[in-house]
Design brief:
Belongs to the thiolase-like superfamily. FabH family. Homodimer. It is found in: Cytoplasm. GO terms for molecular function: 3-oxoacyl-[acyl-carrier-protein] synthase activity; beta-ketoacyl-acyl-carrier-protein synthase III activity. The chain is α/β, with parallel strands linked by helices. It folds into two domains: 172 residues, 3-Layer(aba) Sandwich (Peroxisomal Thiolase, Chain A, domain 1); 155 residues, Thiolase/Chalcone synthase (Peroxisomal Thiolase, Chain A, domain 1). Helix content is 31%, strand content 23%. The chain contains eleven helices and 13 strands. A five-stranded mixed β-sheet has the order 1-7-6-4-5, sandwiched between helices. It has a four-stranded mixed β-sheet with strand order 8-13-12-11, with helices on both faces. Strand 4, helix 4 and strand 5 form a beta-alpha-beta unit. Helix 3 crosses helix 4. The longest helix is centred in the last third of the chain and has 22 residues. The two termini are 18 Å apart. It binds acetyl coenzyme *A (ACO). The site of acetyl coenzyme *A has 24 residues, from helix 2, helix 6, helix 8, helix 9 and strand 12.
């Protein structure tokens, strides 16, 4: 049986930096409030005057990952694209990437698992490679949150947290024993779907009463989050996902060389770090600079950690995520 390993990584974030102080032009908030509760100092938001969109950013990250894998676009067998903020309601963004990169008519699959989107995508790609169906799969996570956030005091509890960006990985077949993705673990609990959700622009739009009430000021057209509820579930599920990944491979917490948690909130990441007694060099966080980029967060952080030389050959790398759905999971990698 084959295994899969990451052979190329890339990311792209828009140039436009929005600091916490910048946000005060739209809403009542403060740098102190945001940093204390989330750790975020600044985020990147697309400048609408630029060409950037979710798919455009995804394509930019993808080009870098393909090149670093030593491949060309024609070597890619399949695309998996994770986003909650596609450019169009349909079709999905994967086909846009296929077109933007001028790729052959390979399959393109969109994954809608929000903050866990990259974990789910990586797991799906791993299965395709293990069965021998595909050799090289492009896995992308990208988000344009800024286009859909409520830039007013009413929306501040959500708006200050999210940033735009994209990351991509090429997952390739390997016959090296004990290397690459060792296991992946996926979960969901849909009864909490509305605790972190965007209700408005859905199939509900065709319901007459909703057309009637189609008010752009309607809060249901912006993301809603029950912050404290999400926090409490996140710390439990993140921990479970990491333990599950370690246990499945007969590993202990001391075996972790690098933990890349979804960049939900620095306080959540710090809680997990403390629980697993990991030193600072074993957890990578960049939420301070980019905010929460949902499906892009893990892959941007993984790419940065790798670029900075913090991930070395044979390291045990654990990726873990929790998010809207609720969905959560982990991927355990021997680098
Ligand atoms: N600036 C200033 N004040 C604010 C802001 C803001 N941006 N947002 C909310 N407030 C106010 C509220 O209106 C409220 O005021 P009140 O007491 O007068 O009513 C007060 O601050 C406290 O609001 P809470 O929502 O209770 O604030 P809390 O301390 O819970 O912090 C936060 C909010 C940061 C969202 C917290 O609940 C949290 O960390 N939750 C985890 C959820 C998370 O991390 N989500 C990330 C995305 S989901 C994911 O990726 C998994």
């Amino acid at each position: 049986m084959y295994s899969s390993k990451i052979t190329g990584l890339g990311y792209y974030v828009p140039e436009n930096v929005v600091t916490n102080d910048d946000l005060t032009q739209w809403m009542e908030t403060s740098d102190e409030w945001i940093q204390e509760r989330t750790g975020i100092k600044e985020r990147r938001w697309i400048d609408p005057k630029t060409e950037d969109t979710t798919a455009v950013m995804g394509a930019k990250a993808a080009r870098i990952a393909i090149e670093r894998a030593g491949l060309t676009k024609d070597d890619i067998d399949f695309i998996i694209f994770a986003t909650l903020s596609p450019d169009m309601y349909f079709p999905g963004g994967g086909v846009q990437i296929q077109d933007m990169l001028d790729m052959p008519t390979i399959g393109a699959l969109d994954v809608r698992n929000q903050c866990s989107g990259f974990i789910y995508s990586l797991s799906v790609a791993d299965q395709f490679i293990k069965t021998g169906m595909y050799k090289n799969i492009l896995v992308i996570g990208a988000e344009n949150h800024s286009g859909g956030l409520e830039k007013s005091t009413r929306g501040r509890g959500v708006t200050v947290i999210f940033g735009d960006g994209a990351g991509a990985a090429v997952l390739s077949r390997t016959e090296e024993k004990g290397k690459g993705i060792l296991s992946s673990h996926l979960h969901s609990e849909g009864k909490h779907a509305k605790e972190l959700a965007l209700i408005g622009p859905s199939t509900n739009r065709w319901v007459p009463e909703i057309i009637e009430a189609n008010d752009p000021e309607d809060a249901s057209y912006f993301p809603h989050m029950n912050g404290q509820f999400v926090f409490k579930h996140a710390v439990v599920r993140f921990s479970e996902a990491i333990i599950e990944g370690l246990t499945a491979n007969g590993l202990q917490k001391d075996d972790i060389d690098m933990l890349i948690p979804h960049q939900a909130n620095l306080r959540i990441a710090q809680f997990i770090q403390k629980k697993f007694e990991l030193s600072n060099d074993k957890v990578y966080n960049n939420i301070m600079r980019y905010g929460n980029t949902t499906a892009a967060s893990i892959i941007i952080a993984l790419t940065e950690a790798w670029e900075e030389g913090k991930i070395k050959e044979d390291d045990l790398v654990v990726l873990a995520a929790f998010g809207s759905g609720f969905t959560w999971g982990s991927v355990v990698i021997r680098w």
